[in-house]
Every structure is written in C-alpha cells, then in structure tokens.
Predict the structure.
Amino acid sequence: MTNVIEADGLHRTYSGGFEAVRGISFTVPRGEIFALLGTNGAGKTSTVELLEGLARPTGGTVRVLGHDPYAERAAVRPRIGMMLQEGGFPSDLTVAETVRMWAGCTTDARPVGEALDMVGLADRAKVRIKQLSGGERRRLDLALALLGRPEVLFLDEPTTGLDAEGRRDTWDLVRQLREGGATVLLTTHYLEEAESLADRLAIMHRGRIVTAGTPAEVTAARPARIRFTLPEGTGPAQLPLGLRAAADGRRVEIRTHELQDTLGELLGWAAASGVRLEGLDARSASLEEAFLEIASRAEAPLNTTDLEEVR
Ligand SMILES: Nc1ncnc2c1ncn2[C@@H]1O[C@H](COP(=O)(O)OP(=O)(O)OP(=O)(O)O)[C@@H](O)[C@H]1O
C-alpha cells in the first residue's frame, strides 16, 4: 500500500527555543483516516503544520504524496485540503461569496452548491459570515478544505463547536470522502470521535508519540472494569477470593484482563449465594482510559520504553 504521509524523526523547535515536536515518526497509507490525539500543548497542531508544509521541520523529514510539502509546495498544495483551527474570513461576505472567492483560487473546484451541500450549509448560502454560529463556521472551513477535491485532507479539530448531530454529520462526510479514496489526517480532543472514525491513531504527549495503533490495539492493553454494589448485609469479604478487589463499603470495582471469565465467576457466585448485584456495569477498557492514563503522566518523567514508532 502506498504511504501518502510519511513523517520520519520529525522535530520542531520554535524560535524561542521551545521544542514542541521531539522526534516523531509515523506513516499513513492511502485511503486511511489517521487521528492525532493528545493533551493540550502536546504538539498536534505543530506537527500538522509541518505535514501541511506551513513550516519547515527543525529535524527529520516529511513526505506528502511523495514530496516535501515545504520545499515542493507547488507540487503538494493543489492535491491537499487543509482545515486550520481557525479560518479567518472577511466577515461581511456571504457564505456563497466566500466559497466562490475560494473556488477562484482553486484548480478544478467543486461547484459552490455542491460544497455547501456536503457540509449541510446549503440553506445558509446567503447569510453573512458574521451571522454564522461557531459550528456553522466550522462547517464552512470544512467546505473550503473540500473544495479542490483533495487527495489528502488535514483536519485540525474539525468538530470543535459542533453539536452532537453536526459532529455525526461530519463523521459521515469524512467516511464518505475516505470511501472516495481520500486520505485523512485529523486532530481531535474527542476520544469518541477518534474511536469511531479513525482506522489508526497516535496519542501524543509533550512532543512525542506515546502510543499508537488501531483504536482496539491502543485499548487492548488496558484492563476491563466491573462495578456493582453489594446488598445490605453482604460485605466484600464474602466475594470469592479472586474477586475481592477494590471495595469502598458495599461498592466494588474489579479490574480484569479476562472480562468474560471474571464476570462468569462473579455471576456464578451471585446466583449461588442469592445475591443481587445492584447497578452491575461491566465494560471493556476505553480509549478514554488509555488517554487519561497518559495525561496523568504529565508531571512524571517520560518512560522511554513506552515510546513506539508507528510504521
Ligand atoms: N509560535 C510558537 N512559539 C513558541 N511556542 C509555541 C508556538 N506555537 C505553539 N507553541 C508551543 O508548542 C507546544 C505545542 O503546541 P501545539 O499547538 O502544537 O499543541 P496541540 O497539541 O495542538 O495543543 P491543543 O490541543 O491545545 O491545540 C505548546 O506548548 C505551545 O505553547
């Protein structure tokens, strides 16, 4: 499979000397949706700007569609679409005028109506930019990124400010674009978004990729969780030996890598003992747990054995 995006040992140091990106490597094959997650200030936007060719890396190499996006901008720019964190538009223009203006600078642009339809803004075409809601502006940013039928789309926090329905519409659209052969790299703070949308993801922390893989791979190493409350008169000491986990009074939380076996044992014991487990809740580890664990290392020194290269 062809790699459309290749980052190898990327570094980015800002002029004040702060190193925001500290040697990251990953590849994104054609037709994949790849999500970059991370704590605030982890270096996601700094990385995406290198991929978009908006800045030159201090070290390492970037290839997008086989070219250096900074040095060979003319070869790369017409084939990519970018949605920055904040698009700036003249606020007196209408939505349609803005898209038309942008289309004027784009080779083989989609018709204005088609672009607006795709992002659900067709009925807002005559509204001035200054009258749009935050979510509608975000949709307009996306329409502009899509305008040139890009092979590669960079979406920096594409659904920030969108309501739940808008977010799902955007996910559907991004999936449709992938179906059409586009490769998508997005950053997001919504773990649900990465879990539902991304084929693969990387979690960044303090300029490095700490963990990466498919959403299932990233969560697989974390234990599942079972929670319940014991009825009055039953204490955790009565639980089978292997299940006497963290108990806070009658509330019990068990963490396990063998969810089915542990749950089977618990339910078998409850049935045999005639115990009703109130509020029983059993769930596999989520991306949120993986993320929170990484975020909680904020003050701890980085454990280099955790670092993985994504190939
Ligand atoms: N122009 C700049 N000069 C100096 N430092 C910068 C500059 N831009 C960003 N930084 C710093 O680089 C680090 C990474 O910033 P970046 O915006 O890439 O993070 P991010 O992961 O996108 O964060 P967020 O999730 O908050 O958007 C931050 O500590 C930020 O303060």
The two ends are 12 Å apart (CA to CA). The chain is about 30% helix and 25% strand. Residues 14, 16, 18, 20, 38, 40-46 surround adenosine-5'-triphosphate (CB under 6 Å).
